[in-house]
Amino acid sequence: MKPAAFAYYAPANIPEALELLGRYGAQARLLAGGQSLMPLLNLRLVRPTVIVDLNRVEELSYIKTADGSLRIGAMTRQRTAERSPLVLENLSLLAETLAWVGHIPIRNRGTIGGSLALAHPAAELPALAKVLDAQFVVNRADGRTRQLTPDEFFISYCTTPLQPDDLLTEIRLPYLPAHTGWAVHEVARRQNDLALVGAIAVVTLDAAGQCADVRLALFGVGETAVRATAIEQRLRGQPADRQTIQAAMADLASLLDPPSDMHASATYRREVAAVLAGRAVMEAARRASVAN
């Protein structure tokens, strides 16, 4: 349970971090919160020759608001974001989602950017990024910067387009409109374990109480988090009542192709996904009906 030998660097700022990534490329691994990387190192499932520790790069840790969105530095601790007054005031869906992520000691160390860059298909934050149409700001060692959508960022199982000399620096989460509700539901073997199946729903109601907009993301049911776009389209313009929502969810299972593993079968995941998605959409609609 000891990692293979590696050289260790702790840059003090973004330029230093990018210079190290440009110098060592694929030989290096970034250390953020370490909640995923350290077990992999100790089990020698990954053997980088260089570790670039980002924990001294204070300019990557912040939460601010701009242009109708939250701007979150990639090194912001999950627990910090969960308890942030800015988050609670402007996008409490993020705080509610983070409460499902691991246990408090994990969230004390884990970072927003680290979880997203890992891109685990059963994690909550990639699903949240998809349901909110987040933007990912990526800096390169050559000085270029690019912005990626969730569909561009999440490619497959724990795979993103980040190259060895790329650094995820900021995540931008748009605010939700008025008369919008949300909900997060998941099932795990034990509380705060990695989810077997989960759903995040966002519903906006019009003046007549119908679904002006519906967004639904599922996790634990594919190689990445999945937007249920067909179900979203079916519910838009429809009454936000139990009968309509349940009728839409009856078709959801047939649209999913989840994996089977030692924890759950594909059949189980399909059926539970439909149930959780229905609960999430109904709760989101109920919240939207009382939202200002």
Describe, in plain words, how this protein is organized in 3D.
This protein is of the alpha+beta class. It has three domains: 7-53, Uridine Diphospho-n-acetylenolpyruvylglucosamine Reductase, domain 2; 60-174, Uridine Diphospho-n-acetylenolpyruvylglucosamine Reductase, domain 3 (2-Layer Sandwich); 180-290, CO dehydrogenase flavoprotein, C-terminal domain (Enolase-like, domain 1). Helices cover 36% and strands 23% of the residues. The protein has helices at 14-24, 37-42, 78-83, 85-90, 92-98, 104-109, 112-118, 124-132, 150-153, 229-235, 242-249, 252-255, 266-290; strands at 7-9, 28-31, 50-53, 63-66, 69-73, 135-140, 145-148, 166-174, 180-187, 197-205, 211-219, 226-227. The strands form three sheets. A five-stranded antiparallel beta sheet has the order 4-5-8-6-7. A four-stranded antiparallel beta sheet has the order 9-10-11-12. It has a three-stranded parallel beta sheet with strand order 1-3-2, with helices on one face. Helix 11 (242-249) runs antiparallel to helix 13. The radius of gyration is 19 Å and the shape is globular.
